[in-house]
Amino acid sequence: METRRDVFQAIADPTRREIIGMLAQQSMNLNAISENFDMSRQAVSLHVKILQECNLIAIRQQGRERICEAKLEKLNEVHQWTEQFSIFWTKKLQALKQVVENPPNMPSKTLKSKPIDSQKKKE
Fold first, then answer.
1. Which of 2, 43, 85, 108 is 20 to 30 A from 34 in CA distance terms?
2. How much of the chain, in percent, has pLDDT values that exceed 90?
3. What are the φ and ψ backbone dihedral angles of 110, each rounded to 5 degrees?
4. What does the alpha-carbon distance between residue 91 and residue 93 come to, in Å, rounded to a whole number?
5. Other CB atoms closer than 10 Å to residue 75's CB: what's the count?
6. Tens digits of residue pLDDT in 1-51
């Protein structure tokens, strides 16, 4: 049975996010990627495999080396999904700012003190 993976699963892991960031700067072979992590080369290979399955990186053969390259187009899915929340919260914060800076006119309740009638006789 084949495991179905998506871009959200890929970016859920901090190691994979770091690998994507590195490959966005430059293409690297697996050994060069592995040198940046305190884990086995096999563990890094698994992360790279998941990123490849999610189409976030491509691996091309160059001589004896396998070169990993970022394919960041798939991150548009993440951007589109999160954009809806960005728009929602931007509107909410703008509305809050409007209320804070221009509070609605509320009738002020001032307490008027009644003059004390000290001349009043007790009955």
1. 2
2. 54
3. -100, 135
4. 6
5. 16
6. 455 678 888 999 999 999 999 999 999 999 999 999 999 999 999 999 999
- DSSP letter for 13, please: S
Sheet architecture: strand order including 65-70:
28-29, 65-70, 57-62
Average pLDDT taken over every residue of the chain: 85
Say how far residue 3 (Cα) sits from the centre of its chain. Answer: 25
Task: Give the three-class secondary structure for 68.
Answer: strand
80 pLDDT tier (thresholds 50, 70, 90): confident
Q: 3-class DSSP state for residue 69?
A: strand
Q: Of 52, 51, 54, 62, whose CA–CA distance to 29 is shortest?
A: 62
Q: Quote the pLDDT of residue 102.
A: 87
SS (H, E, C) 1-61: CCCCCCHHHHHCCHHHHHHHHHHHHCCEEHHHHHCCCCCCHHHHHHHHHHHHHCCCEEEEE
Backbone angles phi, psi at 111, to 5 degrees: -85, 120
Query: In this structure, what DSSP letter does residue 116 have?
Result: P
- Residue of 14, 15, 8 whose CA lies nearest to 56: 8
